[in-house]
């Protein structure tokens, strides 16, 4: 179970890295990390357009700040 959580965390981080320089990203399929981020109200799925974007500008800024802190 712990390994699964660790893998999920790594995949969520990789997902968030896509927002470093973009406000929205395209997705091909809905993965476990996407489901997690949507359930936590961090990301929004636009099924019609096939894109993911943060729920709010504040969420986008928080994602970028976290990336900045971790990637230093």
From TrEMBL:
InterPro entries: MJ1010-like_2nd, WH-like_DNA-bd_sf. It comes from the Archaea. Residues 9-67 form the Uncharacterized ATP-binding protein MJ1010-like C-terminal domain. It comes from Methanotorris formicicus Mc-S-70. Belongs to the archaeal ATPase family. This is Uncharacterized ATP-binding protein MJ1010-like C-terminal domain-containing protein.
């Amino acid at each position: 179970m712990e390994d699964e959580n660790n893998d999920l965390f790594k995949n969520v981080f990789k997902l968030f890295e896509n927002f470093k320089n973009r406000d929205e990203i395209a997705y091909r399929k809905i993965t476990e990390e996407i489901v997690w981020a949507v359930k936590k109200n961090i990301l929004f799925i636009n099924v019609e357009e096939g894109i993911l974007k943060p729920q709010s500008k504040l969420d986008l800024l928080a994602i970028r700040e976290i990336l900045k802190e971790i990637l230093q």
